[in-house]
Amino acid sequence: MIENKKILILGMARSGYEVAKLLSKKNNEILITDQKDQDEIKVQELASLGVKFIKTIEPEALLDETFNILIKNPAVFPYHPCVEKAKSLNIPVVNEMEVAYHYINKPVKIIGVTGSNGKTTTVTLIHEVLKRANVSVKLGGNIGTPLSQIVNSLEDNDILLLEISDHQLNDMFDFKTDISILTNLCPTHLDYHGSYEEYKKIKKKIFNHHTKSDIAIINAANYDSLELTKDIASTKYYFNNDENYINDDIIYVDKKPVINTKDILLKGHHNYENILATFLVAKILNVDFKYVKEVLKEFKGVEHRIEFVRELNGVTYYNDSKSTNPTATITALKSFSGNIHLILGGMERSQDFNDLKPYLSKVKAIYGIGEVRERIVSFAKNNNIKCYAFESLSEAMKKIEENVVKDDVVLLSPASASWDQYPKFECRGDEFKKIVADLS
Questions:
Q1: Measured between alpha carbons, how far is 82 from 59 in angstroms, rounded to an integer?
Q2: Which of 197, 241, 303, 402 sits between 20 and 30 A of 224, alpha carbons compared?
């Protein structure tokens, strides 16, 4: 635990707020900063706990050698001036999850799920299965509930199930799981990490401190995942190999058929991979497969991930706002048969839209939005696809409504982060759903 320390929390959001509350005891002096105004009720609550909030665009000016720790919000870039100053002063830089890990004082089993795509669906499926099997499980991490909010509610022998992003792994050092799942790897968040090699290096931290008694679940069909994990000490379980695989609409575990994909509400090979990982977790935890099958017959998917929103006048609308990289958008494009009005764009992160080229035959028109919209226009032009550019999603939707006809699909799958216009991808998806709900 952290006590008698002077702490700067860089970026409030939910994780900064929760870790500030967690650390407000034990005689810590805490200063939390953000460049945006915050909920006044939360600011006052923190003040009552002795935590001071300062709005500033230059938090590095507040940092000096008297501070003991810098706790960085995962969204803050690693080369932020405040982070670089902390390192020059030899002040440790960590994040909320790393701090909260040291407050776990009960015997629990930690399952961590990471990957370029599929981690939210996988962690949600596992959570639903464990709940159905009456296993005591707490869910948190990148999926929305900071670990700092959970630690004090943990009970003996709980399963602590965490979705962990590369941004979180970047500033984690002592944190360790008992079971780690790597769904897949592809180039993404390169602006954050600087290179794909650095991104993969950070993802590997999901296996930090593993020994033979710890378990790694790995996608055998993903070359980069195999290469990255070939020297880890964990006991390895694979899916998409010759034991756990999908063939002719049947999912096999240990070469035995466990369920027909026709009995699963989720569709798409990518989802079947997430399901395979879920079956392996059930196997490792000795959870009866009947609970997995019961969940799969009811589970409709994760919000903002190829989420059916509405059908109107023969046009179907899908919210895939969670697709923040081209690989995720490829998955979405492969899920439809054609006549797609594709909404692309958002924050400029040097994402390579050329990865989408083999999957554009189904796309009727592209609507570029956000910072990268002009680059999207050039991309569409080079591929002979009609394209329109708009600053905002709402403007794009007006044009889409002029263009769509019966049997068309409107797909928000941006292949881009949302931070140029929205605090998080959920807000972008929610706006899309509201616009679609108001159509007549």
A1: 6
A2: 303
